[in-house]
Amino acid sequence: MSxxxxxxxxxxxxxxxxxxxxxxxxxxxxxxxxxxxxxLLYKGLSGVNLAVFTxxxxxxxxxxxxxxxxxxxxxxxxxxIVVGTPIGVLAGTYMAEYGRFxxxxxxxxxxxxxxxxxxSIIIGLFVYELxxxxxxxxxxxxxxxxxxxxxIPVVVRTTEDMLNLVPNALRExxxxxxxxxxxxxxxxxxRAAMSGIVTGILLAIAxxxxxxxxxLFTALNNQFWSSNLNAPMASLPVTIFQFALSPYEEWQQxxxxxxxxxTLTVLGLSIIARSLTGRREDR
Length: 283
Prior knowledge:
By secondary structure, the protein is mainly alpha-helical. The chain is 78% helix and 0% strand. The protein is built from eleven helices and no strands. The longest helix has 42 residues, at 3-44. 36% of the residues are buried.
């Protein structure tokens, strides 16, 4: 056998081994995902009923629902998105449109990457020292601020990446007709990158929907209905944490049901984000 043929056979064997290892690794990952989803469906579906969405979290030993926790999660998530999204979009716009090659952008991108990978409990501790201790009590607004800090790096990264993908020829065409730069960014760059930016916002919503650690340090929890942003407020992740560790079967069942609700919400947002990304790639 010639040297070339021997080398070819050796490469084929190595390729086959690596392919088999990759398939096994992918299978292990998918198996764990299937087990988690199966456990959630098995434990959580049995507790889904109208009372979950219409009744408050119950005292120990009683039946009830998750209405106040669902309401608190929605309120703090909306405030977090409303506060964090404009900051993230504007910062990403500066990095992609005005300071693409500046040293400041390099520094901001590095800090943003650190913030993106920072454990959420650190963000919660930071907001605790910044707001909760000076105010003297936990509050929903502190929880929303913690969630907004988690939103910012996700939106910054997505906005910058999507704007960088917009061809410069589109910007040059806008500038050629005498349009100011901010008009070109608003009417050309944003329009071309809109689906990608919206995808980033949806991914940010999906991330903060299941965050527990920052809310433990900021909004804490509330057994009752509360619409006061300056007071502790219930949320699904913290309620799940509290109920899952309790010895009461009713609370444990609500914890499984709440976990299923969050999982389905995140899954729905991810599907929407993927569909928007796929639609953009098809264009």
